[in-house]
Amino acid sequence: MLLLINRKSEREIDLMKKAGHLNYLAHEEIKKHIHAGVTTKQLDKIAHDFIVKNGGIPSCLGFEGFPASICTSINDEVVHGIPCNRKLKNGDIISVDFTVRLNGYESDAARTYIVGNVSKEIEDLVKNTELALYEGIKLVKPGARVGDISNAIETFAHNHGLSVVEELVGHGIGTNMHEDPDIPNFGEKNSGPILKEGMVLAIEPMLNLGSKEVCMLDDDWTIATLDESPSSHFEHTVAVTKDGYVILTGD
C-alpha cells in the first residue's frame, strides 16, 4: 500500500508547535478540575471554552459525527468515551484525549488522570503507560523506523506486566487529524516506514492491566476492555527534527 507521508517545513512545524502548546494549556486547565463529583460533560465544556477563548478550534467536535470536544474514557474505557452527566468518583482513572486546531494545523494529546486514591496496581498502570510513551518517543530520529517506536513501547509494556491494545494505533498528523503513517504500539524493530525530518507523529500507547482484547460499546464510539480491566492512555504530537525530535504538545 502506497503511503502519503507529508513532511512539514520549519514554518509548518512552528505553527504545529503553537497548536500543540494550546493543547498543552487546555490539558493543564482540565487538570485543575479533575476531582470526585465533576461530570465529564462539565470537563468537556471547560475544555471547549478554553480552546475557543484562546483562538483554537476543538476539532474533535463533529469529527465523523463525534458529539463533543474531548474524549473522556473512564476505568475500563480505552478511548473515545463521550462526555455525559456521569460524575467522577474517588478511585477512578480517566483518559482525556482531544485535538486542537490552530492556524490550520492539528495537535493531538492525551493524558490519564487519577481521581483521588487508587491501588498501587492502577497507579503503576498509569505511570508505566506514560513512561512507555517516552520510551517510544526516545527513538524518534531521521533514519529510524516506525517499528522501532512500536517495539520499544511493546517491550516496556510487557516488561511491566501490561498488555497492548492492537486494534488502535497512533498516526501521522498535520493539516488533518489523521495522516499516514500508522504508529502501532507493538511490532518488530527495523520495520515500517523510515522516519525523515519534517514528519510529525501522534504517538499514543493504550495499555491494559488485563487482556489486550477490546470491544465497541453500544454508543458506537467508546472502546472498552473486553474483560473490564482498567486501561490507560497517553499521547504526544512529536516532530522529527534534523537531530532527533521535538515534542509539540509539551510546555
Summarize the entry for a quick read.
With 251 residues, the chain is of the alpha+beta class. The protein is 27% helix and 25% strand.
What gyration radius follows from the Cα positions, in whole Å?
17 Å
The coarse overall form would be: globular
Which residues sit in consecutive blocks of at least 5 with pLDDT less than 50? Answer: none
The computed structural class is alpha+beta
Helix content: 25-40%
- What is the CA-CA span between the terminal residues? 36 Å
What's the helix-strand series? HHEEEEEHHEEEEEEEEEE
Q: Return the average pLDDT rounded to an integer.
A: 97
State the helix count: 4
Strand order of the largest sheet: 8-7-9-14-15
Q: Summarize the biggest pleated sheet.
A: 5 strands, antiparallel
Strand fraction equals 25-35%
Secondary structure: number of strands: 15
Topology summary:
Layout: H1 10-31, H2 40-53, E1 57-58, E2 71-74, E3 77-79, E4 93-102, E5 105-114, H3 120-137, H4 146-159, E6 163-164, E7 170-172, E8 179-183, E9 200-203, E10 206-208, E11 214-216, E12 223-225, E13 231-233, E14 236-240, E15 245-247
